[in-house]
Write a structure and sequence with these properties.
Strand order of the largest sheet: 1-2
Number of helices: 10
Strand content: under 5%
Shape: globular
Distance between the termini: 22 Å
Number of strands: 2
Helix content: 40-55%
Mean pLDDT: 88
Amino acid sequence: MELPQTLEGIQKLADLVNKDKVASAFSYTWSTGIGSAVDALSGGYAMAVSGSWDLANIKGNEDIGVGVLPKMEKAVTMNAGAPLVVYNTSKHIEEAKKFYAYMVNPENSLDLLKSGAWLPNQADWYTDPALIDQWTADLPASAKETILSYATTDGAIVQWPAYYVPAYLKMNTEYEKSIDQALSGQKSVKEIYDAIMPAIKSLWESGKVS
C-alpha cells in the first residue's frame, strides 16, 4: 500500500502546475517536450522541475537559475542513468573490462560534463576542488552550488529503483498508464494510486523480471 507521504508529495508537485500555476506542465511519460526549463521560461512560468541534463539547454541564458527541488521534510534527489555491465561469460572479457574502464572515467566525457548533459559518476569529482573545476567552470554558479549540495549531503541522493527491483519495468508500465492524469489535474493522485496500486503491488511481490 502507498504511504500517505507519497500521495502528499506527488499531489503537491501536481498542484504547483494545476493549482498554484507557478510551474510549467510536465508528464511522466515524456511523450512531448513539455517540462524543460526553456519551455518554462518561454511560457512565463516561475519554475520547472527537471534534471541536470537540462543545463545543456539553458547554457548562456542568464534568465534561468537553478535551485534545489521542492521538498517536504528533507531535500532528496534521485541518481539515474543507464548501467554499464560486463558479463563474466564474455568471450573477450579483458577487452570488455578495458572498454568499461574507459567509459566510466569522467576524463573521457568532459565535453558532456561541462555542458551539464551528464554528471560525473565518481565521488571524488564532487569533493576534490581540482576535479570539480574541470567540469563546473562553465555551469551557472547556482547549478554548481545546488549539485554539490546534494552530492555532499548524506542521504540526499537515492538510487533509481530500476537498479535493484526485478519487476521494475512492468511496475513502471502500470504506473505510466494513468499517472499523467494526476499530473495534469484530471484526477487526484489518491484516485490514481487507488486504481493502480493493486496491480503494482502484485508485480512487486512476484520478484520477477518478466
